[in-house]
């Protein structure tokens, strides 16, 4: 079921500083920040040769990463996104095996304009997993 | 400086259960467990098309992931490993820019038999970064 690692998401309290750190200190190619108000985040893409890291900063009220940053004020690794061919088939297979899908169980359109689902971190050893249909 | 994401490491309290979950529930290809007593971990490799996830369970006394699991008993994302061409050049550039290398600053031979260094998570927004010379 799991395909490529689409991205690793890192929540940060200061996107400008984090972006400068990945660009200047770590020598990576980073994008301009993109505000995604419908997802409650501003994102910078760190382009690596085989995948990407997404630096996320909360945007607006009720950001999905606000609680994480309250618990981890310096920031930290937030989730891993894997690509899947068929998100509904993946969901049905996962729920049949007892794994919990967050929200109402229906895929939403994610930050890349593609259907995504999140799996409950308690069912996967503390790791929040995003599935994205590509 | 940063090359490919070599792996994403996830610390887990129960490697057998985590391995079964990635294999049976998530449908990934997972390796047999490998005990690395000199690194204080037992590891299972989850092979993805573009990188790998390493599931780590503490092994022996003074495992480097024991404190993390005490703080995160269910497990969680532990570090990201990036490939670099020249680890000494990378280290010198990083320390010159003020980033802290863990330990005595000298590369050690990592779990893949190659020189590695870890960077202080406080200098990188809560993310523990491993550099591996490939």
From TrEMBL, chains A, B:
CDD domains recorded for this chain? MMCE (cd07249)
Q: Which InterPro entries match?
A: Glyas_Bleomycin-R_OHBP_Dase, MeMalonyl-CoA_epimerase, MMCE/EMCE_epimerase, VOC_core
Pfam name, any one: Glyoxalase_4
User: Isomerase: present as a keyword of the record?
Assistant: yes
Q: Which residues form a coiled coil?
A: none
VOC domain ranges (all copies): 4-134
Molecular function (GO) terms for this protein are:
methylmalonyl-CoA epimerase activity
Q: Is Metal-binding a UniProt keyword of this protein?
A: yes
Please provide the record's keywords in A-Z order: Isomerase, Metal-binding
What EC number(s) does its UniProt record assign? 5.1.99.1
**What is stated as this protein's family in its record?**
Belongs to the methylmalonyl-CoA epimerase family.
Record NCBIfam families = metmalonyl_epim
Which PANTHER family does the record associate with it? METHYLMALONYL-COA EPIMERASE (PTHR43048), METHYLMALONYL-COA EPIMERASE, MITOCHONDRIAL (PTHR43048:SF3)
* Protein name, per record: Methylmalonyl-CoA/ethylmalonyl-CoA epimerase
Q: What species does this protein belong to? A: Rhizobium viscosum
| Organism lineage string | Bacteria, Pseudomonadati, Pseudomonadota, Alphaproteobacteria, Hyphomicrobiales
């Amino acid at each position: 079921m799991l395909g490529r690692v689409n991205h690793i998401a890192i929540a940060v309290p200061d996107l400008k500083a984090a972006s400068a750190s990945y660009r200047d200190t770590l020598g990576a190619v980073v994008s301009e920040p993109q505000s995604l108000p419908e997802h409650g985040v501003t994102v910078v893409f760190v382009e690596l040769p085989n995948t990407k890291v997404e630096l996320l900063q909360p945007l607006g009220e009720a950001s999905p990463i606000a609680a994480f940053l309250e618990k981890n004020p310096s920031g930290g690794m937030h989730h891993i996104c894997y690509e899947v061919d068929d998100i509904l088939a993946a969901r049905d297979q996962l729920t049949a095996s007892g794994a919990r899908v967050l929200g109402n169980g229906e895929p939403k359109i994610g930050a890349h304009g593609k259907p995504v689902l999140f799996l409950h971190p308690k069912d996967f050893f503390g790791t929040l997993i995003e599935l994205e249909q590509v």
